[in-house]
What we know:
2 copies of one chain form a homodimer. Chain A is α/β, with parallel strands linked by helices. The first copy, chain A, folds into 3 domains: 2-53, Orthogonal Bundle (434 Repressor (Amino-terminal Domain)); 70-167 and 302-334, Response regulator (Rossmann fold), CATH 3.40.50; 170-300, Response regulator (Rossmann fold). Helices cover 45% and strands 14% of the residues of chain A. The first copy, chain A, has helices at residues 2-9, 14-21, 25-33, 40-53, 59-65, 81-98, 113-122, 138-147, 170-183, 199-214, 231-242, 257-269, 288-291, 303-323; strands at residues 71-76, 101-106, 127-130, 150-154, 164-168, 189-192, 222-225, 251-254, 279-281, 298-300, 330-333, 336-338. Chain A has a 6-stranded parallel β-sheet, with helices on both faces. Chain A starts with a helix and ends in a 23-residue tail after the last strand. The model of chain A is unreliable at 1-9 and 349-361 (pLDDT under 50). At the A-B interface, α1, α5, α6 and β2 of A face α1, α5, α6 and β2 of B. The first copy, chain A, binds a DNA duplex through α1, α3 and α5.
Amino acid sequence: MARQRRRAIQGATIRDVAVRAGVSPMTVSRVINSGDNVRTETRKLVNSAIRELNYTPSPAARSLAGSVPYRIGLLYDNPSTGYLSEFLLGTLDESSRTGAQVLVEKCVETELAGATLGKLLRAGVDGLILPPPLCESAEVLAEIHKAGAAAVGVAPGHPSADMATIRIDNEAAARELTEHLLGLGHRRFGFIKGHPNQTVSEQRLNGFLAALAQAGIGRDAVRIEQGYFTYRSGLDAAEKILDDSAPIPTAIFAANDDMAAATAALAHRLGYDVPEDLSIVGFDDQPIAVAVWPALTTVHQPVAAMARAAVDLVMDEIRRMRTGIGAPRQLLHPYTLIVRESSGPAPQAQGLSSDPAPRPT
Amino acid sequence: MARQRRRAIQGATIRDVAVRAGVSPMTVSRVINSGDNVRTETRKLVNSAIRELNYTPSPAARSLAGSVPYRIGLLYDNPSTGYLSEFLLGTLDESSRTGAQVLVEKCVETELAGATLGKLLRAGVDGLILPPPLCESAEVLAEIHKAGAAAVGVAPGHPSADMATIRIDNEAAARELTEHLLGLGHRRFGFIKGHPNQTVSEQRLNGFLAALAQAGIGRDAVRIEQGYFTYRSGLDAAEKILDDSAPIPTAIFAANDDMAAATAALAHRLGYDVPEDLSIVGFDDQPIAVAVWPALTTVHQPVAAMARAAVDLVMDEIRRMRTGIGAPRQLLHPYTLIVRESSGPAPQAQGLSSDPAPRPT
DNA sequence: CGGCGCGATGTTTACGGTAACATGTCGCCA
DNA sequence: TGGCGACATGTTACCGTAAACATCGCGCCG
Lengths: 361, 361
């Protein structure tokens, strides 16, 4: 009776699907999970039954039955809220799909990471997800290693022998973005570097420089300033680049969108038109990229997808740590070049000696 | 064998606790869930066993066994990323604790809410969480009602007869914040309103005006401008208030932190010192409140806690819809006045006729 | 003093899925 | 031609918890 009511309310179970397809529940399970050892014909049958009944596996049951009730920790420092919210969206999505239990902890200072980490480990987490910049903290990694926990680093600079990682190819992306600017005729550049505590900062710069080198453009046509990924630091760096007495660049590459947005704001204040007088490009494609005007040309980093992958990967890692076979997996996600309004053709055809853009007081 | 390994790795089960306490698993379950019909002595025994074994109920098993495998939808429009990320943190936390399955969907335009909603309902969600401003969309609410789904509105203006709500007392908070300014000697004010599509905008204004009225300050000492909760709109509104030829206010109350931050930025650009020449207060205590300088005096809204409560509440609602008894619960969360550096004593002791603050070109 | 009722606890079963093992069905080679 | 192995599928048991029902002990009342 009670059972009847339950069934009526919630969706189909694997058994319903099995009956519909005329097979056993186990076969359905196989179709869903791996597809190994199932005839194509049978698989089709099952798949259509799944569609007809609008069946979704229950994550709870799944995690209960699968011998591993995964408990995973998400340790974050203080990334931009734009990054964090997208990351959490992905995490929430995947964890509720898979039934993983996620414990989230913020550690305010990298120094305190050890303590927070201990707390998570004591709470019984089997694996950890480390978004940037924590994935590059040697201290944190050592602690995790000592505790024998599984770990997944998101967006570190390099693959790692000790943990699974999920990255994009920052260098290639920066190169491609720079080539986009070169294609628009730009020859004098500004570059705002990211925080030195993250390897990606360096990689983005390297990609940028590599593209310039390939185009035969020397370092003297480039003004490089230090930034720290924050809006504020972008403003400071942009000020140095634009207040220069030397001819100002026709394009500025900021190592993330926050700094690019700051650069655009400053440019406007100084009376430059973007992209008429000055092209500006960012990196990451965070919400701010379309919140400002003109919308930023940037590189899209699939943060939500990477978060989803991180959840799956950490579960893999936990399994791997238990069986002790195999090596940590290293995933490379695709990036996308997003061309919006903040980049345009270079002003006055590639003349290096012409006057700088007008500078109203 | 396999079982042995599992046990060794993961935490204690309810059975372990039962054995330790010398009772049956069911008694343990009772202690944890309600505590009804259990002798105090037995309860103590069980509780200490729980502590000793560091036992935590498995959310997966719990949601599987409890006849209700809750599937809940989180439908969001485009709140600020600061709000969203904090909200998601709370949601993730609670959903993984309780084992609820959360499906997140973004609906880009309020017009499209119907379609997105339909998608969630077809996916079998039993209840919905609606952060602002969706909780006030009549269209969305009608759709939900029609589908017979449970719903929880977060931060709507008023309690509702049709759905559970979680709010803070915006009017009282605004009043308290205004009284803080009055206490500092301010007598000429600016106010930047929030988006008219949200009732809270109105309530914050009302609280502000109520405090002024109580202090005997007339409307002529107040300059009110329309804003829309965005940084950009705050900038525009602040410009109108500060560019006035009339004596500028000594304090500006912005209906949220984004707009307050914009006001502070503009004030600096115009050469005012904050809070020396001008006090600025915001609302919500979002990340931006401490990212700017000076850090904003504001009202802290416990977003993460409200999100956690929303998850619990929607599960209650689902249960309630099924049993058909009781009325939707209306929760009121506490707010906190946070005094930081952006508010200070009014310049030149409450003289109304004195010269406006210096205005460099 | 016997039965009734209630509070405290135990037992059984189900939740939805998957691992491990069992079975069945071929094709291939000695 | 018989047996063996690989692949396809079914069966059984169990994951950790809570609902439903069963049981037990005890006090109270007629």
